[in-house]
Amino acid sequence: MLVSAKEMLEKAVEGHYAVGQFNINNLEWTKAILLTAEECKSPVILGVSEGAGKYMSGFKTVQAMVSAMVDELGITVPVATHLDHGSYDGCLKCIDAGFTSIMFDGSKYPIEENVAKTKELIAICKEKGMSIEAEVGAIGGEEDGVIGQGECADPQECKMIADLGVDMLAAGIGNIHGKYPENWAGLSFETLDAIQQLTGKMPLVLHGGTGIPDDMVKKAIDLGVAKINVNTDCQLSFADATRKYIEAGKDLEGKGFDPRKLLKPGTDAIMQTVKEKMELFGSVGKA
Ligand code: G3H
Ligand code: ZN
Hints:
Blueprint: H1 6-15, E1 19-23, H2 27-40, E2 44-49, H3 50-55, H4 59-72, E3 79-86, H5 88-97, E4 101-104, H6 111-128, E5 131-136, E6 141-143, E7 146-148, H7 155-162, E8 168-171, H8 189-199, E9 204-206, H9 214-222, E10 225-230, H10 232-247, H11 259-262, H12 264-281
Bound molecules: glyceraldehyde-3-phosphate (G3H) and zinc ion (ZN).
């Protein structure tokens, strides 16, 4: 069932768990995540970066693929199609393509401009019944060409953006996209706590969900994180399983080079990763 992310995240805040956003890149990724969500009876958010959208031919192709897959696979759990780290123009394209949710990443703008652009997009989303995520304080590391510094967000700025009426708020709390460096200082729970105190029941979003120790993830959920974004972990699982298949020479046995066989170990590995994350986030059985 394709829905906006609003209701599933409000329920997550009430129930003290988090919904996973898993980024998709192609048909196999999408199918793996949808089937796992159904098996786990978990709500799920499919994240689509602008780069991944382009790779899949465009946002209309993505929306049509997800929508048809939800129907033909008989997916009954709530599923949102969500633009990840969107530019203003990217947001407009996804609204036009029929996505159920967008993230406007205005963190690179001065706060006044971030506010103005976020406000315009909120008005459109409300009218269309879509949910919208905003970001304050750049998230570290690099994702799809977007490079963040990893600084902590200003809790007052978070309140300012939250009060505009967004449905979820991504705030930098020392989190980083991709693999965490050895000398990473960890999440700033002090910042997260201050943001939560000021924004109340606003679902908070933790980006860079790959490689954060489980105890930190659980503590973040306790402090109001209701959506956790995972991308790199699925890519690593997929690459690792595919490499093992090829290194074992399985692609050369029988019809092992058939893409339906070649891509299966990687697809199964994504399913396993998504399942483990859903269990950690506490969203299993919540659909
Ligand atoms: O927006 C997507 C994410 O924040 C994913 O981060 O690649 O570190 O898991 P990750
Ligand atoms: Zn992110």
